[in-house]
Specification:
There is one protein chain. The chain is mostly helical. It has one domain. Helix content is about 80%, strand content about 0%. It has 6 helices and no strands. The chain starts with a helix and ends with a helix.
Length: about 140
Amino acid sequence: MSMLIAAFVCIALLTISIAHFVWGFGFTWPLRDRKLLAQTVVGFTGIEKMPNRLITLAIAAISFYGSMIALAIADHDGGGVALNVVGGLIGAIFLARGVIGYTPQWQAMTAEPIFRLNDRRVYSPICLFIGLGFFTLIVLRLL
């Protein structure tokens, strides 16, 4: 069961990683221009361009790292407490982002209509899924 959960978490994080990697190199896939991409995936009110490329590439690297941590936690052989702590931190970050996505303050800060729709339907739910996935993996590892 752990490997199945880890696989789903890993796939979600790898998808996030690949998208950020592509955007970090200046491509606007799957959209037509940078402004529309920024409005769709960043969403801050009045945003005109994507964040710094180094930040975007750092997110790509961190999400890739997270995907590997999910698989390592599911392995059950090694890593010890440190792996559980790292997984717990990653899970907490994703849970926090998922919950924050439903708060009025976040909705006011990220008022771009395309982002609002995607955040309610995709971004926040996937963050909750990833966060809960990490905590489930840790619990199953401890059993």
